[in-house]
Amino acid sequence: MEAVENDQSALENPPDPAPTPLQQPLSKSAQKKLLKQQRFEAKKAEKKALTKQQKRQDLERRRKEWEETLASVTEEERSKLIESRRSLRKERMEKRSEERGRKIERLTGARDWGQKIVIDLDFAHLMTPTEIHSLVQQIMYCYAVNGRCSSPCHLWLTGCEGEMGSQLQRLPGFDKWIIEKEDRSYIEALEDQKESLVYLTADAETVLEELDPKKIYIVGGLVDRNRWKGITMKKAKEQGIQTAKLPIGSYLKMSSSQVLTVNQVIEILLKFMETKDWKVSFFQVIPQRKRPEADSEGYQKVEGEEKEEKDDQLDSKKKCIEVPS
Ligand SMILES: C[S@@+](CC[C@H](N)C(=O)[O-])C[C@H]1O[C@@H](n2cnc3c(N)ncnc32)[C@H](O)[C@@H]1O
């Protein structure tokens, strides 16, 4: 998926602008960080261009091979080959359209019976355009993951206004997404269900043990490298709504903070809905490669290399180790 071709660290940590004469010069460590970031970006762009070129070459090679094959056979064999290719294509397209149909059914069904999860998009004013872009990519990823789930959640986007709204609108096919899009904030849109609202925040005291289908879980739509520390906790407190944190500490020892990215939180919730097992959910979503110690239970092989790569592109370089039981 093209959308995941973003490294979360890059997304969440755009290079600082060059200092103007009025600004303080960058400290040595900030300069080092900036240089590292720029090198990373350059490498990423190079890799992307290479992959694109490779794809083009592969396509061209296959086209040539096909033409050569056709040229080397009799008229009758050629017709057979063309016909067989046509029917293969048709089959593939039918399969895809069936899959799409099933996905639409699942997502439509989730509107009636799915676990409600809100992404609170009221923080655009606190993010840079790059961070907003990164958040939009994360939302796109969340939507795709939700669509693949056998029991998807009922996803809400609240506060889809301004820059946030226009960046979302630019996503291909966004208009057709089976998702609740709400310009108002969740507190207005879900006014009559205020008692059911639970803001998920790493700063909460309450630990989320189970998912209650009657509750509506809110995830803060923020990409901020925790620059706005405690902002969602403060917001929930002021609004008088419940808060809870994921039970990360009971299963993993993170080498950095327990603040996860939006897509990681949503994916963990989806995995938990499917498995009813926090440990499995954390281990499958928080990239194994980022853990300093290999876990002994083989979770690393669950979704293979491809998953590992996607995580690499979206996670925020969390490192974790399993808490010994
Ligand atoms: C990148 S974090 C934003 C951090 C932000 N400074 C804050 O105060 O929430 C994105 C969102 O994911 C959710 N989140 C991240 N880590 C979490 C955790 N350990 N437990 C519960 N929710 C978490 C929160 O809803 C959070 O707002």
From TrEMBL:
Stored PROSITE patterns: SAM_MT_TRM10
Bias-annotated ranges (Polar residues): 1-11
Database matches in CDD domains: SPOUT_Trm10-like
Cited Gene3D superfamilies: 3.40.1280.30
Reactions catalysed: guanosine(9) in tRNA + S-adenosyl-L-methionine = N(1)-methylguanosine(9) in tRNA + S-adenosyl-L-homocysteine + H(+)
InterPro entries the record matches: MT_TRM10-typ, MT_TRM10-typ_sf, tRNA_m1G_MeTrfase_euk
E.C. numbers: 2.1.1.221
Example GO molecular function: tRNA binding
Biased composition (Basic and acidic residues): 38-63, 290-304, 313-325
Source taxon at top rank: Eukaryota
GO cellular component terms, semicolon-separated: nucleus
Region spans: Disordered: 1-63, 288-325
Any one Gene Ontology BP term: tRNA N1-guanine methylation
Keywords in alphabetical order: Methyltransferase, S-adenosyl-L-methionine, Transferase
Protein name stated in the entry: tRNA (guanine(9)-N(1))-methyltransferase
Taxonomic source organism: Juglans regia (English walnut)
Phylogenetic placement of the source organism: Eukaryota, Viridiplantae, Streptophyta, Embryophyta, Tracheophyta
